[in-house]
Write a structure and sequence with these properties.
single chain, 268 residues, alpha/beta, two-stranded antiparallel sheet, 11 strands, 16% strand, globular
Length: 268
């Protein structure tokens, strides 16, 4: 599918869970295992990795495992969240913060330009036009290829598109939480990629009885069926399931081979 003018495979990798604790704080518990996980994702054909400078913070970016990056490899990162401590995720959309975030990510990732740079959330203290304007300025400087947004509603997306060219929206969306259905439909009309975060609802989707019953019928796992449903839901859907387990990674990527019939899709 297309992400701007870039071509990526339909299942990406969300690097947040490389930090394998509930607070997404600090380093991975087993660094060697984390590096092996990221390399295995690449071996399986994943060519879009999504991360953020706030994960860790600064410890979930993928350079150590994957640099030098292969041809066609696409990195997305996010800016605009402050982490003063493990329990805090504070929106900070000030232009100086966003510039600081970008420079830090470019240095850690060893890039001169990042493929997809996303405003992680709207800061209620800063007009989103100011935050997006700062990203547009950095794009004109050649440090950002494409701009995306995260945790945006329809109105905010429309406002953002007046300031910058937006190629993706990353919102919470899964089989059990379709509260961003209107945003997904807008992305379809606009040809914008939609990246559903928590595509398995942090495990909640896997407990849906209807999903478990159908997965058994199709000889698939509930996780594979949850991801396959997302792929069937919309041509602009780009799931980015994350995990710290190589076995779960392999299970998730295999979901791309699972094709849902119309009746099975409608049943969910």
């Amino acid at each position: 599918m297309k992400l701007g003018e870039l071509s990526v495979n339909r299942i990406g990798f969300g690097a947040m869970r490389v930090i394998d604790n509930g607070s997404i704080w600090g380093e991975p518990s087993d660094r060697a295992k984390a590096l092996k996980l990221l390399r295995r994702a690449l071996e399986l054909g994943v060519n879009f990795f999504d991360t953020a400078e706030s994960y860790g913070p600064h410890t979930s970016e993928v350079r150590e495992a994957l640099h030098p990056y292969p041809k066609g490899f696409v990195i997305g990162s996010k800016c605009g969240i402050a982490r003063p401590r493990a329990s805090r995720w504070d929106a900070d959309g000030r232009p100086e913060k966003l510039k600081q975030d970008l420079e830090g990510s470019l240095k850690r990732l060893r890039l001169e330009r990042i493929d997809l740079y996303q405003l992680h959330a709207v800061d209620p203290k800063v007009p989103l036009e100011v935050s997006l304007g700062a990203l547009a300025d950095m794009q004109r400087e050649g440090k950002i290829r494409h701009i995306g947004v995260s945790n945006f509603n329809i109105n905010q997306l429309e406002r953002a598109r007046k300031v910058a060219s937006i190629v993706s929206v990353q919102n919470r969306y899964n089989l059990g939480d379709r509260s961003s259905e209107d945003v997904l439909q807008a992305c379809e009309k606009l040809g914008i990629a939609f990246l559903p975060w928590y595509p398995l609802g942090d495990g909640a989707v896997l407990r849906i009885q209807k999903l478990k019953d159908l997965a058994k019928k199709l000889r698939a796992t509930p996780a594979q069926l949850g991801i396959a449903w997302l792929l069937a839901k919309s041509p602009v859907m780009l799931p980015i399931p994350g995990t710290s387990s190589i076995a779960h990674l392999e299970e998730n990527v295999a979901a791309e081979k699972l094709k849902l019939g119309d009746d099975d899709f409608r049943s969910l």
